[in-house]
Amino acid sequence: MIDSIKLVLDEVGQIFHFIGRFFKQIRKAPFEAREFLHQCYIIGYKSFPLVAITGFIMGMVLAIQTRPTLSSFGAESWLPGMVALSLIREISPVITALVCAGKVSSGIGAELGSMKVTNQIDAMEVSAINPFNYLVVTRILASTIMIPILVVLADGVSVFGGFVGVNIHSDVNLYGYFSKVLESLSFEDIVPAIIKTFFFGFVIGSVGCFQGYNASRGTESVGKAANSAVVVASLSIFIIDLLAVQIADLIFTK
Amino acid sequence: MNISKNIESKTIIPPLIQKSEKADGLENSINNESAENVVEIRNLFVSFGKKNKVLKGLNLHLEKGESLVVLGKSGSGKSVAIKSLVGLVRPDKGVLDVFGKDVCKLDLDGLNKIRLRIGFLFQNGALYDSMTVRENLAFTFLRHTKRNYSKEIDEKILATLESVGLEKAIDKFPSELSGGMKKRAGLARILILKPELMLYDEPTTGLDPITSREISELIKSIQAKYNTSSIIITHDLACAKSTANRVVILKDGIIGAEGTYEELEQCEDEWVRSFFE
To answer: Which of A38, A137, B55, B140 lies in disulfide reach of B77, CB 3.0 to 4.6 Å?
Structure first.
């Protein structure tokens, strides 16, 4: 038991040390702009279809599932507002982050883990190229910037999914639906939800990089790195979400 | 030929090992004898954890233009020794003079300057999977020359690939290459930076005898063409025979025997003979 606690604390310490190294390294030249843009393309553009499909289905399902309850109160007209609020404040950021934890974080973990196992990271080091700067800094930065963008796009797609869901049993036009959505949304709904996604992005990138970069020798460790990246990133997303909700509640609740 | 004390035979203690016993206290001095040495390892200790002691006071030198082959059983510390030279493994104790500078005492910038003069060929070539062969060569070269990709650089890449016989694979990804081609591409990536010291970590492992012979010939031709000094870690006796000026055999983290290939091959010591049979 004590040994397990020691191991967990040791890992947490190593993660914080790794993050500290990232902040130290980020200020040092050269900034690998090309690799950063390449990672933005992979993390952002390549993940969009998955995020969009998930968001659309979530919006649609939420609208379909919520309708009977609201109908029983005669509050069907609240449906667009309620669906949009749930999606933008909570469901879309968390689901998008979890999807990206599965796709991006595990991808980074496996990629860097495989590079470690096949000596590619060592080869960079002996060629006097800073592998941390090239591989880690670019991926964490790209993830921190692209996840919020993906969440904003997922918000739009999922709200549209809600429109489709609402129209299965009733006839609401697009303009009317979005008027109701915008009426129900305020600054306090959007800004905290967006801010927390930067932390989600940072965690997704840094956990993936940490697991991959510190993979031990042997092919087994590549799978382990990818698996640990998903588990740790997903858990961290829920913890950050809990903290973000509490903080937003303290600041914005009158 | 020198065979270490710890081998049961009527043998001579090698001068290097005698020197190691005196090495404490003299760690920072480079004597006149070592002035021609590209590499001088003195009293090197490396361990992984408390129990796993890999190198236990290794002494080794490499003269300019020399080709040194290091033999030894798996786990005897051969790879660890050359990884220490480029700062991939931090030693517990000892002096690692490369081009007259102790790499243990250098900061990262200083170490990188030394690394640029060294070419390290990993066992699997260690090509970057996401890049083509051309990009692999350009990646390292452009960073250190701080130039943009141009026709001139493209020609240089092609010429380097031609020197290892791989010009036709210039636009292939590492996954499309055979084991031997990967090693050639790895060599080309190193050679484009014109290193003065080459470190080969089992360059012929996993290759068929014909390709192994080709790689061994390539090592020899690189030595002649680029005037490099080399340390070759290998289990392949044919490779050792064709490339070595001098051979050392590691035993339990120190040198067990040392001499030319022919001397060691004819040695009557049972332990030495076990490597050649």
So the answer is: B55
Q: What whole-number distance in Å separates Cα of residue B169 and Cα of residue B160? A: 12
* pLDDT value at residue B222: 87
What confidence tier does B34 reach under pLDDT thresholds 50, 70, 90? Answer: very low
Q: Which of B90, B103, B115 to mutate to test the interface with A (most CBs of A within 10 A)?
A: B115
- Select from A114, A123, A129 the Cβ nearest to the Cβ of B122: A123
Among A114, A120, A125, beta carbon nearest to B88: A125
**CA distance linking residue A200 with residue A101, whole number of Å:** 9
Which chain B residues touch A222 with a CB distance below 8 Å?
none
Matching residue, tokens 């290892």: B164
Domains of chain B: residue spans and CATH: 2-117+196-276 (3.40.50.300), 131-194 (no CATH)
For residue range A59-79, what is the model confidence (pLDDT) as tens digits? Answer: 999 999 999 888 888 888 889
pLDDT in tens, B3-26: 654 444 333 334 433 333 333 433
Q: Measure the CA–CA gap between B87 and A128, rounded to whole angstroms.
A: 11
What ipTM did this prediction achieve?
Answer: 0.82
- Domain residues of chain A, as ranges? 32-252
CA dist., res. A104 & res. A97, Å (int): 10
Residue B144 has a pLDDT of 82
Q: What is the pLDDT of residue B16?
A: 39
First-to-last C-alpha distance (Å) of chain A: 45
In this complex, the residue of B88, B128, B144 whose CB is nearest that of residue A126 is: B88
| Chain B residues near residue A127 by CB distance under 8 angstroms | 115-116, 140, 144, 189, 193
| Amino acid identity for residue A154 in this structure | A
